[in-house]
Amino acid sequence: xxxxxxxxxxxxxxxxxxxxxxxxxxxxxxxxxxxxxxxxxxxxxxxxxxxxxxxxxxxxxxxxxxxxxxxxxxxxxxxxxxxxxxxxxxxxxxxxxxxxxxxxxxxxxxxxxxxxxxxxxxxxxxxxxxxxxxxxxxxxxxxxxxxxxxxxxxxxxxxxxxxxxxxxxxxxxxxxxxxxxxxxxxxxxxxxxxxxxxxxxxxxxxxxxxxxxxxxxxxxxxxxxxxxxxxxxxxxxxxxxxxxxxxxxxxxxxxxxxxxxxxxxxxxxxxxxxxxxxxxxxxxxxxxxxxxxxxxxxxxxxxxxxxxxxxxxxxxxxxxxxxxxxxxxxxxxxxxxxxxxxxxxxxxxxxxxxxxxxxxxxxxxxxxxxxxxxxxxxxxxxxxxxxxxxxxxxxxxxxxxxxxxxxxxxxxxxxxxxxxxxxxxxxxxxxxxxxxxxxxxxxxxxxxxxxxxxxxxxxxxxxxxxxxxxxxxxxxxxxxxxxxxxxxxxxxxxxxxxxxxxxxxxxxxxxxxxxxxxxxxxxxxxxxxxxxxxxxxxxxxxxxxxxxxxxxxxxxxxxxxxxxxxxxxxxxxxxxxxxxxxxxxxxxxxxxxxxxxxxxxx
Amino acid sequence: xxxxxxxxxxxxxxxxxxxxxxxxxxxxxxxxxxxxxxxxxxxxxxxxxxxxxxxxxxxxxxxxxxxxxxxxxxxxxxxxxxxxxxxxxxxxxxxxxxxxxxxxxxxxxxxxxxxxxxxxxxxxxxxxxxxxxxxxxxxxxxxxxxxxxxxxxxxxxxxxxxxxxxxxxxxxxxxxxxxxxxxxxxxxxxxxxxxxx
Lengths: 602, 197
What we know:
The complex is a heterodimer of chains A (602) and B (197). Chain A is built from 21 helices and 22 strands. Chain A is α/β, with parallel strands linked by helices and 602 residues long. Chain A folds into 4 domains: 209 residues, Rossmann fold; 99 residues, Rossmann fold (3-Layer(aba) Sandwich); 165 residues, Thiamin diphosphate (ThDP)-binding fold, Pyr/PP domains (Rossmann fold); 68 residues, Alpha-Beta Plaits (2-Layer Sandwich), CATH 3.30.70. In chain A, the strands form 6 sheets. In chain A, strands 3-2-4-5-7-6-12 form a 7-stranded mixed sheet. Chain A is globular and about 85 Å long. The model of chain A has no long low-confidence stretch (mean pLDDT 97). Chain B is 38% helix and 22% strand. In chain B, strands 2-3-1-4-5-6 form a 6-stranded mixed sheet. In chain B, helix 1 runs parallel beside helix 6, helix 5 crosses helix 6 and helix 6 crosses helix 8. The longest helix of chain B has 14 residues. Strand 8 of chain A pairs antiparallel with strand 2 of chain B, so a sheet runs across the interface.
C-alpha cells in the first residue's frame, strides 16, 4: 500500500512490520511521534519511559529475552542513555535492538546541536541514516535484521527534516520474528560485563566492525549514481536530498549507512569521478574519516557550514560561491515584527514566574515549556542546561555562596523533567545539607513535546490507568522535611510560601497544585470567571499588566479625547483583553493596582 | 532541470499556529499524490508555538528530493495571514502566484505598542506580482458559513482553480481527511473559495 507518512510515522511502521515487540521512548523534539504512532499497534508493548537511559535498558532487556525492541529519543537523549548504550555494544543483543536518535540541526527546540553520528564511531556500532519517509520505513526494518545478524545494537539517525517531513511510503505487512523468546543463564558471560568477560568481548567488537565494514560495501542503500564524472558528491540523509535537488547532474555516492564506511565502494567512487565534494550537515564526520583513508577531497567543510541545518539554498550558495545569484529582496524580513514562542494564555508557569520575578531570586531553570520564562518580559529564568540540571546547580550554587546565597537561589523544574533527572540531585541536596528550594511546577503532563504521559500522570502511553507518583511523598521519603504545595495562580500566597522556603537554611520542595497544562483536555482547571475584561474608564494604561507577557493582553495609544480616566487621571493609552483567548486565569487582575481589570460575563 | 525534465512545483503555505495550514497542506498532498505525482511536505514543529508563525513547504513533481523549497523558488504562496504573507515575499519567483487571506493577527510587539503592523500588504504584493496577487476574504466567508476555522478550506478552494482537476477530486480528498460532522461546512467552504477566484 502507498500512503503519505511523516518520517516518524514511517519509523514506527517499519519497526512494526519488522516484528518489534517492545518499544520505549522519552519524548523529545523531533522524535516524539515515533512512540506516539507505535501505541496504535496492539502487537507492540509501547511505553513512555521516565528517561532515555531507562528506555534503552528496558529495550535491551527485551532484546536479551529474544524480542525485537526499539528505543527512540532526541539527540541529547542518547547522552542520558549513553551509559547502557556504550556497554551494550560489548554484550551484543539476542533479539534485534534498534536505537533511533533524532538530531536537531539549527536547534529548533533543543539545548545544543550535537551530531549523533559521533556516537556510532565512539560506541563501535553501525548507524543508518534515512533521508525521507520511505527510507525511514525501509532502513528501520533492515536495521533489525542487521542487529541480529551481527549481534549488535544498531543506531538509526533521524533529524528534523526527515522526522517531520511527509512523503509517500510503500508499506508491507508485519512479520513476527522467528527468534524464540526465553532467557538462557548459560550464556551469562556474554552479558555480565565484569573485567574478565569484557576482555573476551572487547576483541569481538573489533571483529564485528571488520565484518560490518565488509557488509557496508554490499549494503543496498549505499548507492552510487554516476552522471557528470567531473564532480562526485559523497553525502547522506537530508543533505543528499538538498544537494541532489540543486545539482541533479553531479555524480553521487549516497550513504544509507554512515558507519562504518564502505571502503571498496569509496575506492571505486574516487576512481570513477575526477573531483569529490563531501556535503554533510554539522560535523565533518565523513570528511575526516575519508581524508584519514588517504583520499583527496576537493571540497567539504571549507565551503559547507559546520553548524546549523543545511537547506537547498545554503548548499547552492556554498558550492557556487561568487556564481550564486541571490533572489531579490523585496521587503527586508528583519523589519517585520516577529512572533516569538510564548506560554499559552492562562498557563500556570506564567503566574509562577511572575512571583519569582517579584521575589528577585536567581532561578536555575530546566528543560520544558517553562524555559520560556527566560524570555522577555518575564526574564525570570537564569540558567537552563539539561534535564534535571536545575536542582544540582541550585544546590551547588548554594554551597559556593554559603550564607550569602540564602534566600536567593532556587530550582524550577517541570513534573516530567523532575521524574526524568531530578530525583538524584534532590537526594544530593538533602543528603549533603544544601538549602536550595526546588519548585516542581506540575502541569500533569509532558507539555512541550505535545502532551505525553509520564509516571506522575496516572496513565500509560496507551492510555490505561496506572500508578501515579506523589511528589510530596517522594520528597519526604528522600528526606526533605519542608514540603509545601501552592496554588500558582494565587500570587500573594505563592510569593509568601516561596519567600519562607528560600530563606530557610534547609532543603525544601514546593509543588504547584491545580495548574494543569492549558492544552490538557483530561485535567482542566476551572477558573472562577470565563474571562477578564478592561474597565476602559478606569484603566490608566500604566502597562503593569504587560509585565506578564500574556498573549491576550494588548496596549494601544489613546486619542486626546480619551486621555483621561473617569477619576481624572492623565493616560497615554489603554489596555484591552482579547476575550476569545483569555481563559480567565485572573493573574492580570491581581497585578492591576487600579481595579481596572474586572471579570467578564459568560 | 535538464535531467529527465523533472519540473517541480513549489507551494509555500504560511500562517499563524491554529489557522489550519496543516489540514490545507494535507488536502494538497492527497490530491497530487492521487494524480500520480511524487510529493513532499515539511513543516516546523518546535517549542510551544501557539500563536507562533507556521509554514509548510509542499512540493510535487515527477521525483521530489528536497523536503524544503529553495529560497526564491516558490511558485505559489498561500498565506492565511497578511503579515505572514509579507514575511515570505522574497521566497516567491517573479512569475509566482499569491493568494492571501484578508486577516490580521497582531504579533506581540504590535500588541504591546512597540511595533506597527505593516500597512498596505496587498499593495506591496501587487507592486511586485501585479495581477498574480489575489486577496480573499477567507475569514469573512468562513464566518458567514458558520465557522471561522473553515477559512483554510476556502483558501484551498481558491487555490484549486490553478489546476485542471475536477471539483470532486478535491472534495474527495477533503472528505477523507475530516470527521463526518464537519463535512458539510467544509464542502461549502471549498465551493465558495473555488468561486471567488
